[in-house]
Amino acid sequence: QEKGSTFLQLGSSTEQQLRVILEVLEEYDWTSFAVLTTLVPGHEAVAAYVEALTEGSFIGWEHRGVLTLNLSDDPDGSRLRRQLRDVSAHIRLLYCSRDEAEAIFRAAHDLGLTGPGYIWFLVGTNLAGSSRLPEHV
Q: Which residue in 30, 45, 54, 104 is deepest, having the highest Cβ count within 10 Å?
């Protein structure tokens, strides 16, 4: 960094990310999706915002609901794997912390939910700060 220079980092808000993701879903006619969150702060607002965007739209969204994952009470990951397996939508919007994303993608990978036919969108500003993707994406 040069003397006297300023570093400015801009990031998009979670709301902006969700708008863009829904535009991508609309463009590809992927109207059926589920929202997965953890108990990370803001998860209720994300769920409400997705609901507001899809209900107020003329697009025939098939919003398959919101699933809130609680990783803290599941040390062996058995409940997480069961919950992930029970989600019928192949398109998933995931709002969680970076550490939680690692565990979720590891479980999804073990279940075969990260291969062809499954599309995951990571949402949130809490995933920033690293250029490294979760191992099992």
A: 104
